[in-house]
Amino acid sequence: MAAIVSVENLRKVYDSGFEALKGVDLEIREGEILALLGPNGAGKTTLISTICGITRPTSGRVTVAGHDVVTDYRASRRLIGLVPQEITLEPFTKVMVAARFTRGLFGKAPDDAYIERLLRQLSLWDKREAMTKELSGGMKRRVLIAKALAHQPRILFLDEPTAGVDVDLRKSMWEVVEALRADGVTIILTTHYIEEAEAIADRIAVINGGRILLVEEKDRLMRRMGRKELTIELQCPIDAIPETLAAFELVRGEDGQTLTYSYDRAAERTGIVTLLSALSEAGLVLRDLQTRQNSLEDIFVGLVREEA
Fold this sequence. Notes:
Shape: elongated
Number of helices: 10
Organism: Amaricoccus macauensis
Number of domains: 2
Largest sheet: 6 strands, mixed
Structural class: alpha/beta
Pfam family, one: ABC_tran
Keywords: ATP-binding, Nucleotide-binding, Transport
Strand order of the largest sheet: 6-7-8-3-9-10
Protein name: ABC-2 type transport system ATP-binding protein
Domain ABC transporter: 5-234
Helix content: 25-40%
Order of helices and strands: EEEHEEHEHHHEHEHEEHEEEHEH
Strand content: 25-35%
């Protein structure tokens, strides 16, 4: 799949001397959903702002469909829709007018039929004559998405799109995202709800301290770094793990009633059969067994801790 956004050795140093981006290299494929994950202050918003032409890079190069974001700003920006973290709307503007106006800003001819389809898709059609100040926080965020899509961009940036949005609205927003992907729109999202990224992203990029730590297919990442845990509930609590079980690196629960064994689910041999035999030889009687698979959040937290 060809790259629609290319970031090469991108650096951003602010006047204060703070280096927000430290030689970032990233290629975003056309038609994919890329989840950009990182802790607060990692450089996510600066990277997005630079790609969108809002922030000027200190050095390096960014192109959008071959257009340089500095020297060919208008052509690159015309291809991008941006939904920012902050809700910034003119309070006395009606929803329909806001979408029409943004479309016009990008030089697009009026198309009320498209705007209607867009507002219906976002469940905003019934609110088309309402002023934005009358809307709930979740509906305001939908208006931001409508404005970002009004000029029919090929790339959509969603910076924390579901922050402060209730569960029902979050679910319907992701349905909209899936529909956009089906139409060939490239989507880059940041989110604190990592389970959302795990559910919908094609690839995961992790940024921390202004550097990209990892860019990988989500499914491959989960296979490569995902581990499973086997929790063993004992019939009777123990004060310490028998020395004969030391090789399994078991973790004893605070109550002494459980033992946790971590293993690589992709390994040819997990060691579980050997462990169960060793438990029996040690005189430990099992009451129950449960397994748990590492989530993307577990992997993300582990990566960030390693880098800290």
